[in-house]
Amino acid sequence: MDSSTQFVGRSVLITGTNRGLGTALVDEALRRGAARVYAAARRPLTHDDARVTPLLFDITDPRQIARRRRGSRSSTCSSTTPRWPSSTTSVTAR
Question: What is the pTM of this model?
Answer without folding.
Answer: 0.67
